[in-house]
Structure formats: structure tokens, C-alpha cells
């Protein structure tokens, strides 16, 4: 099975939902914290796009 890398932030609700889904399905993953500039740069270089979590809406 291929290794899954989850680029996420600690406060992102979509990231949290994906973590829960991976865990429920038994999918092993490595999480990388996008709040660390070097990790954000790595994700941008790897995928060629700016990676950002949607802003919090206060809901």
C-alpha cells in the first residue's frame, strides 16, 4: 500500500475530519504540519500549488 502523507494544520476542520476518516478506515498516514514554513514550502514544491486550509468561519 502506498504511503499517505497528510499535509495539515492543527486547527483546520477539514484536516481533522480527514484524520478521523483515515483512522476509522485503518489507513496509515504520516502527518506534516503546514504551520511550519519548511513543511509548507515542501508541499508547495511537491505539488506546485499554494497549500492552505480554508479560513476559520467562527462557526
TrEMBL record:
Domain (GST N-terminal): residue spans on this chain: 2-59
InterPro entries: Glutaredoxin, Glutathione_S-Trfase_N, Thioredoxin-like_sf
CDD domains linked to this entry: NrdH
SUPFAM superfamilies: Thioredoxin-like
PROSITE patterns: GLUTAREDOXIN_2, GST_NTER
Protein name in the entry: Glutaredoxin family protein
Amino acid at each position: 500500500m502506498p504511503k499517505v502523507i497528510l499535509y495539515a494544520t492543527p486547527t483546520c476542520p477539514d484536516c481533522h475530519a480527514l484524520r478521523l476518516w483515515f483512522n476509522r478506515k485503518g489507513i496509515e498516514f504520516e502527518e506534516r504540519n503546514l504551520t511550519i514554513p519548511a513543511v509548507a514550502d515542501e508541499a508547495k514544491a511537491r505539488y506546485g500549488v499554494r497549500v492552505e486550509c480554508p479560513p476559520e468561519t467562527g462557526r
